[in-house]
Amino acid sequence: MTFQKLVSQCHEIISTYPNAQIGIAIIDGVQSFYHQEKAVFRAASTIKIPILLASYLYLYSKIDDIAVIHDRLIVEGAGVIPFLTGKLPFTYRNLMELMIIVSDNTASNALLYANTMEKVNQLMKYIGCEESKIERYFMDENAVLKGLDNSTTAKDMILMLQQIGESNSILNDEQRKDARRILGNQQFEDMLPAYTFDEEIHYYHKTGGLTGVDHDVAIIEYQDKKLYVAVLTQGWEDGFTGKKCIAEIGKVIADYLKS
């Protein structure tokens, strides 16, 4: 399958969901496909990627020290920390792992607090993310009611993933390798990887979801091929159709990689 065939099939999929907003960015070397890549979406848990990047920058000197988790940052939703019993010491690296692998909201809040919202936003601007911002902690519904939210675009998410997938001035090679390890252990596989069981295709990714919102952003590798993919969607009336749309795009990408 050629890259142009991949693009054509993505357009066909998009056309079957006319009532949803869909933003896509796919980068394969010098080839690229964009669709509403600058459209702003509620970021959901994809905004945990810049928190991960910031943690390597600002917390790296104490990454294996015991982390501080203030009681007011402990929230439910995705994750496991609020449901564990006893006093469980976590290192900052553990929190980074929990934040990505099971999308733990308490771990994410603790890391956002430790890094500060200001520094994470400054880092995104430095990378070149024009429309991404963090305005609230996770599960802070009062902030949402006040009009504060976290937002991003497909184009910005690609820029963030490239800090992990390519040599750069933000992360060193050791940090990039560790970030790939964490993203590669992602437990939510019901979107981009959903329609393939090929263990030779490797996904380093982060999903995100809110009511009416489904996202998946990834570095996808197969043999000597590497793609950067961001699929952001919103406007769904149920919790299934958005995931199905992204899974269909993921199937086309898998077919392209193996062709």
Polypeptide structure, described:
The chain has nine helices and seven strands; from the N terminus they run H-E-E-E-H-H-H-H-H-E-H-H-E-E-E-H. The chain has a single domain, classed as DD-peptidase/beta-lactamase superfamily (Beta-lactamase). It is α+β, with helices and mostly antiparallel strands and 259 residues long. The mean pLDDT is 95. The radius of gyration is 18 Å and the shape is globular. Strand 5 (201-210) and strand 6 form a beta hairpin. The chain has helices at 3-15, 48-58, 92-101, 105-115, 117-127, 141-145, 154-165, 173-184, 241-258; strands spanning 21-28, 31-35, 41-42, 151-152, 201-210, 213-222, 225-234.
- Quick check: average pLDDT? 95
Question: What is the C-level CATH assignment?
Answer: Alpha Beta
CATH superfamily: DD-peptidase/beta-lactamase superfamily
Please work out how many helical segments DSSP would assign: 9
Low-confidence stretches: none
Summarize the amount of helix as a percent range: 25-40%
Distance between the termini: 5 Å
Shape: globular
The portion of residues forming beta strands comes to 15-25%
SS-derived structural category? alpha+beta
User: What number of structural domains do the residues give?
Assistant: 1
Strand order, biggest sheet?
2-1-7-6-5
From the 3D structure, determine the CATH topology.
Beta-lactamase
Q: Give the helices and strands as they follow along the chain.
A: HEEEHHHHHEHHEEEH
Radius of gyration: 18 Å
